[in-house]
Amino acid sequence: MNRCLLLLAAAALAVVPAQAAKKPGKADQAVKAELLAHIQELASDAYEGREPGTEGEAKTLRYIGKEWFEIGLESGTNNPRHSWFAPVTLIAREPDGSRAAFSRKGRRVYVSPGAVQAFTSGKRSLIENAPVLFVGAARAMPTRAELAGRVALLLDGGQDGSERQNALLRAGASAVLTVLDGERTLDNVIARRGRSGYALASDELGGDLEAFITREGLNGVLAGTGQSVDTLQAASNAADFAPRPLDLAVSLEATTRETRINTHNVIGKLAGRRSDAGAVLLLSHWDHFGVCAEPPAEHLICNGAIDNASGVAVLTEVARKLSALPELDRDVYFVATTGEELGLLGAHAFAENPPLPLKQIVAAFNIDTVAIAPAGSPFAIVGKGMTPLDAGIAAVAKAQKKKLVDGEAANAYVRRQDGWALLQHDVPAVLVSTAWSDVPRMERFMETDYHRPADVLKPTIELGGAVDDVNFLVALTRHFADAKKVPTAAK
User: I need a labelling partner for 303 at 20 to 30 A (CA). Which of 35, 282, 338, 387 fits?
Assistant: First the structure.
């Protein structure tokens, strides 16, 4: 379907919500048509789910770059070698090997095959003959002196103990060995931990070592000592329980297999009158999961129509509107990030190698999963109360006669979007959208189509709120790009 037909089709798909204050004007209908055209293109099977490092990425980059160039943006990479597309190198790591051996008083102790599995966050981690310290459920953290050079033996209790494991490692344990004494099985752990993990290539290898042992496996290791998983559980439940050494040593080794993924952020810029006055940043992630299902499923691709072809569509239409307006004081940067679904990695890469000093960014607005709310919905701020931007956003909302949601319910999602990565680098970043104003509605999406092959462009897609997002983000950008209304020192 060509672009003209898509724009005409938008009118047929558009449904005016009952709560809309008035029928959308021609300008809003045109924006809705453009949004639909972008989503139709980016969420089509031809883009193969927009997985980083694939031909689907190449098509995505070409589409975004062409659209932004035709709108009138210029490259924002500030790197003549990499115009428009800023390289990002990712490392995919998946478990490759595991070894465990136990000893008591220097003599090897039998452990049944398949009873222990070790994992590392680095390429290879190894400890030899480390003494074991039983820490119970780690309700009280042992001291660094108690943990130093030892493996912490942790009771699982049927719960994901990742926070306790990480706390023990930070406190000085050489490794953590978790006893699967509840409902979790070793197969459950392997299925979860066996998936690839991702990091920026610039990140240092962590090398943390964690292992899991079944109840039966530990009972076999403890045979003949008068102890068992049951006696350890009973001891840990005592009011006066304190971590205690066991007459046991363990050697653990884990390795990972690494794959490099070459991917890119797209960076465009709308130059302002005063390059010394700082900048406003708008961003949205372009990536998704690629082929994410297997036969006999009928549809195998995670197309990511709402998450996040809709966000890239809104970002592009904000750029189109701003480029048609009089020149602003500040530069405005537009970034389509990679690797958001893999851990906000593209946003972190942008912050670690930015095209301008981060301290010059007066305000950043992330755009994610926006084609959900009907026209006329109020706006939520994901990141409310975490930046100096709230007062300015409220002032623009009042001037635009837009309602902001009271409370901070949307902040439950703050760590799950690119704005969080920027906040970690002290960039004032929020997500302002109608889509996040109704948390139960967002949760319904996440419980159904989210991150599944079902997130495709449907005739029922709701673009009314997305049009409102475009208009409000234009107003917000103009406000924060005005050096008189928002002096740089006020950041």
Answer: 282
Delimiting residues of CATH 3.40.630.10 domain(s) in the chain: 3-72+271-490
CB 137 within 8 A of CB 164: yes
Report DSSP state, residue 389.
T
- Do strands 209-214 and 175-180 pair parallel, antiparallel, or not at all (unpaired)? parallel
The radius of gyration computed from the CA coordinates of the chain, to the nearest angstrom, equals 26
Distance CA 281, CA 429 (A): 9
- Measured at the CA of 425, the angle between CA 424 and CA 426, to 5 degrees, comes to 95
**Is 296 buried (19+), middle (13-18) or exposed (0-12) by CB count in 10 A?**
exposed
The pLDDT score that the predictor gives to residue 133 is 97
334, 315 Cβ separation under 8 angstroms: yes
- Lowest pLDDT segment from 29-38, 204-213, 296-305, 477-486: 204-213
**How far is residue 67's CA from residue 180's CA, in Å, rounded to a whole number?**
53
- In contact, 393 and 475? CB cutoff 8 Å: no
The position carrying tokens 């809003």 is 28
The answer to whether domain 3-72+271-490 has CATH 3.90.550.10 is no
CA 422 to chain centre: 12
Please say whether the beta carbons of 283 and 367 come within 8 A.
Answer: yes
> Where in the chain do CATH 3.50.30 domains reside?
92-258
Instruction: Check if CATH label 3.50.30 holds for domain 92-258.
Output: yes
Q: Where are the alpha helices (DSSP H) in 43-89?
A: 55-71
Confidence category of residue 22, pLDDT binned at 50, 70, 90:
low
Instruction: Say if CB 350 and CB 318 are below 8 A apart.
Output: no
Residues 6+ apart with CB under 8 A from 24: 14, 16, 32, 375, 464, 467
Question: What percent of the chain has a predicted confidence (pLDDT) above 70?
Answer: 93
By CB atoms closer than 10 A (0-12, 13-18, 19+), residue 448 is exposed
CA–CA distances in Å: residue 117 to residues 190, 216, 266, 311: 8, 14, 40, 40
For residue 209, the one-letter residue type is: L
Could you give the CA distance from residue 6 to residue 452 in angstroms, rounded to a whole number? 25
- CA-to-CA distance for 471 and 69, rounded, in angstroms? 21
Question: Would you tell me how many other CB atoms lie within 10 Å of the CB of residue 262?
Answer: 12
How far apart are the C-alpha atoms of 110 and 306, rounded to whole Å?
A: 53
Geometric angle at alpha carbon 412, from 408 and 417, rounded to 5°: 115
pTM of the predicted protein model: 0.84
Can you tell me whether residue 384 is helix, strand or coil? Answer: coil
Using CA atoms, how far apart are residues 96 and 207, in angstroms rounded to an integer? 14
Helix (H) or strand (E) holding 305: none
